[in-house]
Every structure is written in C-alpha cells, then in structure tokens.
Amino acid sequence: VSGWRLTLKQPPALRVDLHGVLPSGLAALDAAAIARLPLEHGRETLALGDLFAVTPHGDDETLVLDGDCARFDCVGAGLVGGTLRVEGDVGDSLGLQMRGGTIVVEGSARDLAACEMAGGRIEVHGDVGDFAASTLPGSMDGMRGGALVVRGNAGDRLADRMRRGTVTVHGDAGDFMASRLVAGTLALGGRCGAHPGYGQRRGSIVFYGARPEVPPTFVPTAHEIGVFWGLLARDLQREGGAFAGLALRKPQRHVGDTSVAGKGEWLFVS
Amino acid sequence: MIERNGIVVDDTFAEAFPMKATRLVVTAHTMPWAMHAALAATGFATSVIACGCEAGIEAELAPEQTPDGRPGVALLFFAMSGKELAKQIERRVGQCVLTCPTTAVYAGLPDGEPIALAKNLRFFGDGWQIAKSIGGKRYWRVPVMDGEFVGEETTSVVKAVGGGNLLLLARDTDSALAGSEAAVLAMRRLPGVIMPFPGGVVRSGSKVGSKYAALTASTNHSFCPSLTSLVPDSALTPDIRCVMEIVIDGLTAAGVAAAMKAGIDAVVERGPQAGVLRISAGNYGGKLGPFLFHLKDLV
Fold first, then answer.
1. Residues of B with CB below 8 A from A230's CB?
2. What are A146-192's pLDDT values in tens digits?
3. What secondary structure letter does DSSP report for A211?
4. Are A125 and A105 in contact (CB under 8 A)?
5. What is the pTM of this model?
6. Which one of A184, A231, A263 has the shortest CB-CB distance to B67?
7. How far apart (Å, rounded) are the C-alpha atoms in residues A122 and A98?
8. What DSSP character marks residue A13?
9. ipTM score of complex
10. CA atoms within 13 A on the CB side of A37
C-alpha cells in the first residue's frame, strides 16, 4: 500500500468527474497505471496523466490532490477508507455518499458537499456551497452519519433532510439552514440566514454565534439538560475555533418545528 | 503449608470459573445520589446461586473521570451467561438507576459484545424519547420528572472470572472480622474486581451439592467450627473458632490474583497476634473451573 500525489498540470477547460479516484483504489496501482486511468472531459476521454503529474507520497493509504481542483466534481465520492487531501479548492459533490475515511480540503468546496454522506470525516478549511450535508434531488435522507467540519461559511439549505451525523460550521450559514432536518447535530459558530429549521422534525441545532429570531412554531423548554449538554458540548468543543469553551456555557433550549409535530431542539449558547 | 509472619498459608488453591461481565458508570448531580443508585443497582447481587448476578461498586469516580463531568461510580456486574447478564442489567438499571434522581448511565468498557443498556429503557419515554449520537456513541434521552434521563444505548460484555476466594481462619469473631475488613480494604483499592458479599465478606461459605436433592449448594462443613469434632473431613483445628470467606470476581484472572495477593498481604502484615491464624482457599478439586489460584504463588 502506498500513497500518491496528483499535481494538477493545468485546470481543464470543462468539468471533470473524479468518481473512482480514491486512495484505496490507487494504492494498489503503479504510477503508469494511475496515469492511464480514464477521465470524462466533455465528449472526450482523457487519461488522468494528461491532467495530473503522478508522484509517490508516503507509505500509507493517502491521496493528495495538489492544485486548484475547482473544476473537478465528486472528489472523494464513495470513499470508504484512507485519507484524501486537497491542497486547493474542489468542485461540486465533495465526499458524495462517502462511508468512511477522511477528506481534508484546504480551500473551498462548491455545492452538495457531504451530500448523503454516511460515515467518515470531511474537513473544509474554506467555504462550502449550497445543499451541504443534504440530499440528492428526489432522495428522502440527507447526510446519514459521520462528521462535516466547515471552517468557513456554508451556503443555503445546509443539512436539508439530514438524518444522522454532526455538522459544525465555524462561520455563517445561508437561508433555510437545517430545513426538514430529520435528526443529527448541527452546530453554527456564526450567524444564519432566513428560516432556519423550517419543518424541522428532530435533531439538535447549536447556535453559538448570533441568535436568530425564534419563529412562533418553536417553543421554549425550561428543564435541566446539563447531562446531555455536558456530553454534546465536550464533543463539539474538540473542534476548537469558534467552538472553544462551549462546555463552559449553559444553553437555552427551544423545541420545534411544532407546525410539523417536530421534536427538534435549538440550543442558544451565548 | 507455608508460614508468613507467623501465619500459616495452606498449600491449596482457589478455584474460579468463567463468567460474563460488564462495567457501568453511573453519574449523578452529587456523589451521594450516584451512590444511592449504585447501592440499589448492586443490591441483592451476592451470588449467582440465587441472585441472577454478582455485582458491586468498583470505584468512586471524580467528575473529570466521567463522560458528563459529574461525580460518578463504576459498577461491575457478573453473570453466568451474556443472556442472563443482559436481563439483569435491564432490570437493575431500569428499576434502580432510571428511577434515582439526576442519574445517567454509561458503558464502562470500550470493547466487547454489546448488550442493551438504555436501548429498551427508552420506551419508558412513551414516544418522547430522543436518540443522540455523540462522538461515535449513541445515547437515549428519556423525559422524566426531574428533567431527562440520559443513558448510553448499549454496554459491552467481556469474558471474566468469578469465584476467586480466600478463607481467613481466626481464633474468634472479633479477629476474623478485623482481618477480613483489612483484607477487603486492600482489595478495594485495585481496579477491575469486586467483592460481592455484604461488606465484601461471606460467613456462609458453600460447597457444591447437598444431601437434599433440591439444593445445588450447602454449607461448607469442612470449615464450620461447630463441626470440627463431628465430621471426618474437617479442615479446622480446635484453636480455629471463626472462619470468614472473601469472594472475588474480576474482569481478568490477573486482576483476581492481584486482589487475592493484596488480601493475603494485608492479613499477613497484621501478624498472628491479630487473631487470624491461617489462610486457606476454597476449591472443588479442580473440577469446577479452569482458573486455579495457588496460594503459594501469591505469598
């Protein structure tokens, strides 16, 4: 087993789907075989070696994408193990339906990052676009497990229909954050746009930044939740950054969305 | 026969047998409330002969040692099968921990076969219970009148060792009790073991079988001072007027051996003038269990 570094020679003219280019798959190949892997580019098929220079990178199951990969979609899609590191930006569908392993993006990701993710960890140092941790069109469940960490900001419809797992956004989020949230945990360090928790069924949203206006379909609860908070806050504050010191604070809790008989919770921490 | 500091140590062995065990961590708002739950949950759990399981308090835990940052207690439960252990855990946690004000319950072992902890107790929530996955572990939050009961979904069961023992043969009741108390105190400092009988000590040591067909165990007549001159196989001499037994269950054989050694050392250190004159152990001729703890290896 060995790791590989793919250094982008120049950005492609069209978008390229990187489905199947995963650390585990490449670890069993030699450099020449990796360079011959086919990539769809519009109506033509290119060899991976046409776009990337292939060089060894360590002995573990690691794949490094070096360069601005904003025109590459589905980076890390279906990942089950190993580590994928992107030293730049990526396109849409980062970590789509991944089930294990780790993805680190030093730049930003476009729409549908961590979409229907079921396990593993994605860490994006920059921003993510719309529908992060949400569903593919027509699907009932969004993110189903694992952890998505966004050091920057997230776009609209973050965690739409999310069912399980943890999303932490250190910056701001767009409109309709956690819309139709089924379950799971979403922690926001900054402010969010309009209509957060629209149609929320269950799940927890931690607001550690600006407190949004509470809609009339969410109701306060006054009971003691110190035990649960002790477990959750200690776990979240391991991410550091905007969530440092979270366990020292006490949250205020609201429950909703009662318009859909929801039992979801909002935890305001200030 | 070996002599240490004037105390005779029999050339015999304690015979222990395999059990299934789990560790639970019970926390509460204050240590007294954690202890209330712990004492209730481990009550009536001295022997698998009639209690279903053997259980005890392993250690008190400071807030920084518990999952939720509150004071807590580590409990160990032992049973003859994983199925019986699961039944006992559900009953005892459901009736003694869930009911106790402010408590929460967590699995205390990282690995092993999972059995239900709060997995079934959650139905007490009547539909208002909430599942929560935090840090790779799944918890249930059940609404109760003081707020919410938090419990980890499952706890891990591991292979363990039950029935390690020491017999302390003393000249009278006072010295037998004092020696037993000193030994139990030393043993309780060790992790991974419990002494399940009241105060860690049992005065009704048993043998397998009985003259009565319905009974599976009966008094260990060889160590009863009232029978010294009456039974042909008495293990006692006339100067022994009181015998106490300490039974030890442990997560590992090494843990049981360490506890037995700690107990022996504590008694030996007190010397014969303290009244414990001999140390022995209970066995069944090596037929009952695969774990044999020879006293000569522990002194």
1. 67-70
2. 999 999 999 999 999 999 999 999 999 999 999 999 999 999 999 99
3. P
4. yes
5. 0.91
6. A231
7. 9
8. S
9. 0.88
10. 22
